Amino acid sequence: MNIFYTLYCRMLHLGLRAVSPLLPYRAPEATEYGEVARLLAAGGCRRALVVTGKRVRAHGLIEPLLAALREAGIAAEIFDDVPANPTVSCVETAVSLYRGKGCDCVTAVGGGSPMDCAKGVCARVSSPKKSLGKMKGALHVKGKVPPLVAVPTTAGSGSEATAAAVFTDENTHDKFAVFSFKLVPKFAVLDPALTRSLPPAATAETGMDALTHAVEAFIGRCTTKYSRARAAEAAKNIFSALPAAYADGNDLEAREKMAQAAFAAGEAFTISYVGYVHALAHALGGAYDLPHGRLCAVLLVPVLRAYGKKPWKKLARLAVLCGFCGKGTPKKEAAELFIQKTEELCRAVGVPEKIQIADADIPALVRHAAGEANPLYPVPKILGKKDLAQILHDVQLKKGD
Q1: What are the extents of the domains in the chain?
Q2: SS3 of residue 109 by DSSP
Q3: pTM for this model (two decimals)
Q4: Cβ atoms of residues 244 and 251 within 8 Å
Q5: 176, 180, 204, 240: most buried, per Cβ within 10 A?
Q6: Per-residue pLDDT tens over the stretch 76-111
């Protein structure tokens, strides 16, 4: 990596670190269905667009929200055609329904995809002359957004607490993020019972997504006391609760811990950003339409190892906070222990070690990941394109493996 470019990145990160405590982040108000509906009605809302997925709707998971809205005198229009990775076109279809039916608020029930789609609707409603692509990046959502309620049915994306949403342009296969504090949901309903029907594999993948949020937020160079505390709390809960939630979907105590962990990790990375795990996962997700959590799970340990000794101090601190070792443990040993515990967790919940990646796709994947991460993400170590290509080769499943 060119030393001058590295210096440029680090100067930007210093600026981000200086302003982080001043950013207008606000946590959503966590409440219950009935209270959310009452608050929306008190604010003048009369017709809600409910954004969800077909599976979530088929399992009846939107019914408690619909009942609360009806009781509060709020009509509901349902959009349930959200794909696993929300696309620009699905957002546009939802926006058309919002406008055509005269909606005045948005609710999302589901995992990260419906919540991101709902944020896309809010962004487009606020800036009707701007496409989602024109709002790519940070702070390009300018107008007033409608009230947004998030009801997560997974414990992973943390989208119910974040200012970010990720979309795929199906024409270019580009996966990009829109970041604006205006997109933080106004209310969030954290009901662990909604995650009971989540299959073991999805429980594992979304849980590892939350752990990735926590780790990348904690070891980055743009943290605050609050974001570090929330990240550490999330990581500790995930290590203790994810195996139990994976083994028994009806373990509501474990599901509750995972719901709280995903929310805390979402808060942490909204303030402190993510890193190369997410940059590479977004590139791979756009190219192959794979679940984001699975990609994060596969990439987390290889990226941590690619950083070398740079994150040892913070990983060691995280190992202590998670109860893996004592404060007197040498930082290299403690950091390695944290990485080993992460590997063990991946194995315990059935995460694959590798994924299929075509050799011919690697240069484009690297360009996409590098373009997303550099210079914005305040990572422990600036990685160049050769480093990112090596990580992809490390997780590449080849014929005969």
Answers
A1: 3-22+198-397, 31-189
A2: strand
A3: 0.93
A4: yes
A5: 204
A6: 999 999 998 899 999 999 999 999 999 999 999 999
